[in-house]
Design goal:
Epimerase_deHydtase; alpha/beta; two-stranded parallel sheet; about 325 residues; Rossmann fold; seven-stranded parallel β-sheet; NAD(P)-bd_dom_sf; single chain
């Protein structure tokens, strides 16, 4: 019999893919999904060796019940947004509660999903593990950095992707489409490079880190080995926008975009990110853990384009 795995965040974009991957892994595993209510998305189609444990990261007693008999914890749940109280309760205190419960239950491997945003704004160019300080610039990132510490203090492993795309993404590419729609033409974003990863490859890396004997404690960056030029990322978003039939004029450079979008609260953050290198270099997930980084961005985006088209057609 394979390991008994508890997965949090299974109703989310990434956690749902991890749950589906775990349920269909070559080595059979007993999978338990922590959820506050009925499952939706990929996790809802999990296999016969999957069960649901009702619980909440803010309820320590429910976490102790969920962790009973668990060998491996894959923690993908998080609170994202501007609610500072919720972020602390879930990302910091909730992670501490969960890790404490897993350790008491005898779990031998703890893997948590975090974000490269714990380092704040770049420029980061081929940044290697251990070379950057923590400098979170938002309540989400600061509380996720605090959650990382609970995991690593227990000997666990943290995976830090930068930008994640694919089926189920309602933030990255939809956010860029929203940004571009506010401009009269395509955005010339300059020459920055960005680390991206396909959601299915990230799910495979989380599961691989949870099961591989080669996994080390501490943080990993987990992105496709080839960074993506900002022009390729913007071209993908522009292709989605063009499909909607919105008339497009001449290209707009970054200074002009900043001036035109000065009144939009989300625009400054997006433009700052796009203009700055965010390239993280860590081949250990692919070289040592035997995980597959998946296709490069151009092929990967094409694989998910139909889903994005459907999302935008109904928005």
């Amino acid at each position: 019999m394979g390991p008994r795995i508890l997965i949090t965040g299974a109703t989310g974009f990434i956690g749902g893919r991890v749950a589906a991957a775990a349920a269909t892994a070559r080595e059979p595993a007993h999978v338990r999904l922590l959820a506050r209510g009925p499952l939706t998305g990929p996790a809802a189609a999990a296999g016969p060796r999957t069960e649901t444990a009702v619980g909440d990261l803010r309820d320590p007693a429910s976490l102790r019940r969920a962790c009973e008999g668990v060998d491996v914890l894959i923690h993908c749940a998080s609170a994202i947004g501007g609610d500072a109280e919720l972020a602390r309760a879930v990302n910091d205190e909730g992670t501490r509660n969960l890790v404490d419960a897993a350790v008491r239950a005898g779990a031998t491997r703890i893997v948590a999903l975090s974000t490269a945003s714990v380092h704040g704004r770049g420029p980061f160019r081929a940044a290697a593990p251990g070379t950057l300080p923590l400098a979170p610039g938002s309540v989400t990132s600061s509380t996720r950095a605090a959650g990382e510490r609970h995991v690593m203090d227990a000997g666990g492993t943290v995976l830090r992707p930068h930008l994640v795309y694919g089926t189920g993404d309602r933030r990255l590419l939809p956010g860029l489409v929203r940004l571009l729609a506010a401009l009269p033409g395509p955005l010339d974003g300059g020459s920055s490079l960005h680390s991206l990863i396909d959601v299915d490859s990230l799910a495979g890396a989380l599961l691989g880190a949870a099961l591989s004997p080669a996994t080390e404690p501490g943080p990993y960056y987990v992105d496709h080995p080839e960074p993506v030029p900002v022009g390729d990322l913007l071209a993908a978003a522009e292709s989605l926008l063009t499909r909607t039939g919105l008339p497009r004029g001449r290209a707009v450079d970054l200074p002009t975009a900043r001036r035109l979008l000065a009144g939009l609260p989300f625009a400054g953050h997006h433009l700052d990110m796009l203009a700055t290198d965010h390239w993280f270099a860590d081949d250990r997930p692919w070289r040592e853990l035997g995980c597959d980084p998946g296709p490069g961005f151009t092929t990967g985006f094409a694989d998910h384009a139909a889903w994005y088209h459907g999302l935008l057609d109904h928005s």
